[in-house]
Amino acid sequence: MSGSPVEHTDVGAYALGLLEEEDRRAFEEHLHGCGQCRAELRQMRGMADVLSDLRDEAAAPEPAPAPAPAPDAVEPRRP
């Protein structure tokens, strides 16, 4: 978004910490005069943590599958 005007749709990106430095500063300045964005940001409080936890779970490697059970005994071949 760098160089473009602040959008009300940036609330989610701001809450998740996804805005670049310049955009973050511009959005924070926008927040001072926009009650709608401040209210939406308050509603999102805590959601960033939940989404971050989900992202961490999705990025975690899957556990290795359990090895197949070993046969108790191998029967010898009968002629």
TrEMBL record:
<dbReference type="Pfam" id="PF13490">
    <property type="entry name" value="zf-HC2"/>
</dbReference>
<dbReference type="InterPro" id="IPR041916">
    <property type="entry name" value="Anti_sigma_zinc_sf"/>
</dbReference>
<feature type="region of interest" description="Disordered">
    <location>
        <begin position="52"/>
        <end position="79"/>
    </location>
</feature>
<dbReference type="InterPro" id="IPR027383">
    <property type="entry name" value="Znf_put"/>
</dbReference>
<protein>
    <recommendedName>
        <fullName>Putative zinc-finger domain-containing protein</fullName>
    </recommendedName>
</protein>
<keyword id="KW-0804">Transcription</keyword>
<feature type="domain" description="Putative zinc-finger">
    <location>
        <begin position="11"/>
        <end position="38"/>
    </location>
</feature>
<keyword id="KW-0805">Transcription regulation</keyword>
